[in-house]
Amino acid sequence: MTTVFLISAAPGDRVPGHELADPECPQVPGLLERSDVTQWLASVGYGPDSDDELVYLLTEQDPGSVPAGFPHLTVTL
Question: If you ran DSSP here, which 8-state letter would residue 10 be given?
Answer without folding.
Answer: -
